[in-house]
Write a structure and sequence with these properties.
alpha+beta, about 15% strand, Transferase(Phosphotransferase), domain 1, 2 domains, Phosphorylase Kinase, domain 1, about 425 residues, single chain, six-stranded antiparallel β-sheet, 13 strands
Length: about 425
């Protein structure tokens, strides 16, 4: 697949109607610009496809068909598709609803990980959008934080329905095309379901697997499977179960562990049956754990150069050769707990669920973090010792200190008891030896 052209289209007008403005994001198949609909005088987002894809008639036909299907997904949790077109210069593009804010990846870069209640809020809205699409026969195939937009008001919307499906079908259509063979997998490797890796098969349950991986990352700050390259990560999806989030970060309710494991079972038949079952499980977890509603933190405001910083997108992965691009995840600090959760609530949460506590985890690609100190071989993730200290971390530390003191007192008591027994035994032996025979 050729790369997206580097020529800056800003300032051009597509089909005499859509003016292209500044760059918003860059992916493997497209670039996204802020734009203006000159006819309706409204701001829009314009996704301009890679020139290589735009020059493939089979892909363009599928893209136009998928764009029409995605345009019928009228739901507040789905980024609206307003139009699609081909400019006389060969540019193929989509015109989308402009969401002021950023992506879920931006939120994770800023927060590191989310409070469990906020993570449930995010995943509930994501799965609701997936349910709408699945009910209409659309499978996303590339659910990941980069494809979840978060508005400045905390609204959550899933983007890129149709685009990935068109590329996927195009790759599979021509068996003589080396980039369309079974050895090539379309998707972001950190979120691929095992069946996508092994045979390229994807259905609604593949989307649910990816949503479960996203939930794991929201709770822990890292995807569950790491590795030295994309091929290793893909193989871990096939051969290794997703671990419980509480094994990476403490204080996570066991009900959330069960939800993640139910969504990410390696056997599609054993996963949650559909998006409706996923939603029911999410709501059951919220009730079982009594987690309060917590709004989604808005992404950090972009200014200056940060506005045009490219975001990673979908890549092709060669399972028998070198990866095109290994996944990377960025981290920032996790701020405070919700205002309505006090230290007592956190203590109770830790006593009920937090037997294993982990450090803040992360791997910051942008060069503004200190180097990681080591790797956790059990999960293939990087551990960072200088994690932010917040209310939950303070509570966890308090619980650990209390347990350490309890263990110390018990050891001291046992030692004193042994000394007493030994002293009594020695005295009794001496007394016995002093008795005449």
């Amino acid at each position: 697949m050729t790369s997206v052209p580097t020529a800056d289209p800003a300032g051009t007008v597509l089909e005499g109607r859509y003016r292209v403005d500044g760059l918003l994001a860059r992916g493997g198949m497209s670039v996204v610009h802020r734009g203006s609909d000159l006819r309706l005088d409204r701001p829009v987002a314009i996704k301009i496809l890679d020139r290589g894809l735009a020059g493939d008639p089979a892909f363009v036909r599928r893209f136009e068909r998928e764009a029409r299907a995605a345009a019928r997904l009228a739901h507040p949790g789905v980024v609206a598709v307003h139009d699609q077109g081909r400019d006389p210069d060969g540019t193929v593009f989509l015109v989308l609803e402009l969401v002021e804010g950023g992506t879920l990846r931006d939120v994770l870069r800023d927060q590191v990980r989310l409070h469990p209640a906020a993570a449930l809020t995010v995943i509930e809205q994501v799965v609701t959008a997936l349910q709408v699409a699945h009910d209409r026969g659309l499978v996303h195939r590339d659910v990941k934080p980069e494809n979840v937009l978060v508005g400045t008001d905390g609204s959550v919307k899933v983007a890129d329905f149709g685009l990935v499906a068109a590329a996927w079908e195009t790759d599979a259509a021509d068996p003589n095309d080396p980039e369309g063979s079974g050895e090539m997998v379309l998707g972001t490797v950190a979120y691929l379901a095992p069946e996508q890796v092994t045979d390229g098969r994807a259905d609604a349950r593949s989307d649910l697997y990816a949503a479960g991986i996203v939930l794991f990352e929201l709770l822990t700050g890292v995807p569950p499977h790491g590795g030295d390259d994309a091929v290793e990560v893909a193989r871990r999806h096939v051969h290794h179960d997703v671990p419980p989030p509480s094994s990476v970060v403490g204080g996570i309710p066991r009900a959330l562990d069960r939800l993640v494991l139910a969504a990410t079972d390696r056997d599609p038949e054993a996963r949650l049956a559909d998006a409706g079952a996923f939603l029911a499980a999410v709501r059951g977890v919220r009730m079982d754990t009594d987690l309060p509603y917590y709004p989604v933190p808005p992404p950090p405001r972009r200014t200056g150069a940060a506005c045009s910083r490219p975001l990673r997108g979908t890549r092709l992965l060669d399972l028998d050769g070198a990866p095109r691009e290994a996944p990377r995840t960025g981290r920032r600090a996790w701020d405070a707990e919700p205002e309505d959760v006090d230290d007592k609530d956190v203590d109770d949460l830790g006593d009920d669920y937090g037997d294993d506590y982990g450090d803040d985890l992360g791997d910051e690609p942008d060069g503004d973090r200190e180097p990681d100190s080591g790797t956790d071989p059990a999960h293939g993730v990087r551990r960072r010792p200088d994690g932010a200290v917040d209310d939950v971390d303070v509570a966890i530390e308090r619980i650990e200190r209390r347990r350490a003191r309890t263990r110390s007192r018990r050891l001291l008591g046992a030692w004193l008891l042994l000394v007493s027994i030994a002293t009594v035994a020695a005295g009794a032996a001496g007394w016995g030896l002093g008795i005449p025979g």
